[in-house]
Specification:
Blueprint lengths: L4 H20 L6 H5 L3 H5 L3 E8 L2 E8 L6 H14 L15 E8 L3 E3 L11 E6 L2 E5 L1 H6 L4 H11 L12 E5 L1 E5 L8
Antiparallel strand pairs: 1-2, 1-3, 3-8, 4-7, 5-6, 5-7
Helix pairs in contact: 1-4
Length: about 190
């Protein structure tokens, strides 16, 4: 499902308001905000990632893989988690808020793959899983870093905490597409 420009603007606003509310203690959702969200968008289910940047650098990235939640709520929850719970970074501070840029990735369906030729760089993201280990890289990452399919698979395995060749030794691999948009160009590492 393609998201309209108006809905993209709404989802980015939800993410920004959730971050602002979390960091400053302001009200999370106002009646005016909810009233401004079209009924179809309020009812849309989806999986998504929220990526934050500041001064061109990654500042947080958290997502929800299952399309079992209402998309506006998923976006708000992931935005709060990206600004406060990404273990790679300290929580976003009030002083940083004006410089935070938001990128949203609305995930498509996960499709199992068995061969690297089923991956199209720049189009597909990857999820690798084996046991309790799980790693995901968004579609834009491989293109930004000029990785080929083998490197993309190896780096996704690495993100999962697995050996680089785990995809050849029992790890399950899925590909997915994502609709990526934000208040920054989609050319930042995640």
């Amino acid at each position: 499902m393609t998201t309209s420009d108006a809905d993209r603007h709404t989802l980015l606003g939800i993410a920004r308001q959730a971050i602002l509310a979390h960091v400053t203690g302001a009200p999370v959702v106002s009646d005016q905000t909810v009233a401004g969200i079209p009924a179809e968008m309020r009812a849309r289910r989806g999986a998504a990632f929220v990526t934050l940047h500041r001064d061109g650098e990654l500042r947080g990235c958290i997502g929800h893989l299952d399309a079992d939640g209402l998309l506006p709520e998923v976006i708000a929850q992931c935005a709060v988690a990206a600004c406060s719970d990404d273990p790679r970074f300290s929580p976003v501070t009030t002083a940083e808020l004006s410089g935070i840029q938001i990128e949203l990735s609305i995930l498509g369906a996960m499709e199992p793959i068995t061969d690297p030729t089923e991956i199209e760089i720049g189009r597909h993201g990857l999820l690798v899983e084996k046991g309790w280990h799980r790693g995901l890289l968004l579609p834009q990452v491989a293109a930004e870093r000029s990785w080929d399919r083998q490197q993309f698979l190896a780096q996704t395995c690495h993100k999962a905490g697995l050996p680089a060749d785990a995809w050849q030794h029992g790890a399950r691999v899925w590909r997915f597409e994502a609709e990526v948009f934000g208040d920054i160009a989609a050319t930042r590492p995640t």
